[in-house]
Design a protein that fits this description.
alpha/beta, Rossmann fold, eight-stranded mixed sheet
Length: 347
């Protein structure tokens, strides 16, 4: 009897495994056939002027300027009088290429755009300070100061949105003087569903070799990141997500995972004194719509928009939507600046 039950259990388990492999192969075939909003090129960095800054704790941050005067200029492109620059901050385990197609649309529309790699990501290094959401906010402040940017519109995706919130709260006077608008995408001001134990487990898993090995397996890796995109999941997008995940060092993945379980940025939101739009995908399970809606409710006058059928990677899934939101804020700020300058001239 016992042997019979064991044989039955093994047969059921084997059939389940075969079924799972078959389902995964079929899913992978669909991903290979799909065409996404980036036309098969999600990992995109526009032509521009590449530079870097060194932060107060010795981190080197890689930046790219695009738009306005074009990449042939010997130095960074600059906006015209009254025109704010658009500065884009990317997600955890990402890089500036996440915003590539959004930046290209903005540049084509005549805007000056700055993309940068967050510390420990892409071509940027770590500094002597422990990596944290607060330190990322300080990095943004140092970038704006080093580039001597006047008015700016800030775009933050996921951890990039947390970066903008940290900057607004920790550098209030600077933000009030510089920021003309912001778009917060697929983000959160606090991780309500996670506990300290979740943080311990998350840091251990994400820092481990097994996580990297699983992500490096093409089909398995695609399956592991599948929920980060919504209705349209292409192999190109899934590969871009898993590649940038693999390329983020374990010593960056783990501590930031813990930082996001411990953060509470809600108090910073009262310092947003500029127009803000909060955008999230309807199928986002990483930073769920309710978390984004809470942010919009806590920022005076902020608007809230749900992108139907999209999930977490909105800059890749809906680059046009985010580019339009950023461009509208930048254009409105430019008009307002021009009007204010005219009023002062005639006073």
């Amino acid at each position: 009897m016992a042997r019979s039950k064991l044989r039955t259990a093994l047969a059921v388990g084997g059939a389940a495994a075969i079924g799972a492999r078959t389902a995964l192969r079929r899913a992978n075939a669909r991903w290979e056939r799909s065409v996404d909003a980036t036309n098969g090129d999600p990992w995109y960095l526009p032509d521009g002027h590449h530079t870097q800054i060194t932060t107060s704790d010795g981190a080197t941050l890689a930046l790219t300027h695009v738009g306005k005067h074009g990449p042939s200029q010997p130095g960074p492109s600059e906006p015209g009088p009254g025109e704010p620059s658009v500065v884009l901050s990317h997600c955890w385990m990402g890089a500036r290429q996440v915003w590539g197609h959004v930046a290209q649309r903005l540049a084509d529309d005549g805007h000056h755009v700055v993309l940068y790699d967050q510390r420990g990501h892409g071509e940027s290094t770590l500094g002597s300070d422990p990596i944290s959401i607060e330190r990322l906010g300080d990095d943004l402040a140092e970038i704006l100061a080093a580039l001597e940017l006047g008015r700016v519109v800030l775009g933050g995706h996921s951890m990039g949105g947390m970066t903008v919130m940290a900057y607004a709260g920790r550098h209030r006077e600077d933000a009030a003087r510089r920021v003309a608008g912001s778009v917060l995408s697929s983000t959160s001001a606090r991780r309500k569903s996670l506990t300290k134990r979740d943080g311990d487990i998350g840091e251990a898993v994400l820092s481990g070799k097994g996580f990297t090995w699983n992500m490096s397996r093409p089909v398995l890796g695609r399956a592991l990141v599948r929920r980060q995109v919504g209705d349209v999941a292409s192999a190109a997008t899934l590969d871009a997500i898993r590649s940038m995940t693999i390329n983020t060092p374990p010593e960056v993945r783990g501590p930031l995972a813990r930082a996001m379980t411990e953060m509470d940025l809600r108090a910073h939101l009262e310092h947003f004194s500029w127009p803000t739009r909060v955008v999230v995908g309807s199928k986002d399970t990483l930073t769920v719509p309710a978390w984004n809606e809470e942010i919009a409710e806590l920022i005076d006058g902020a608007s809230f928009h749900v992108a139907e059928g999209c999930s977490h990677m909105l800059p890749m899934e809906a680059p046009g939507l985010l580019a339009d939101a950023l461009a509208e804020l930048a254009s409105a700020a430019s008009v307002e600046q021009t009007r204010s300058s005219g009023e002062r001239a005639t006073a």
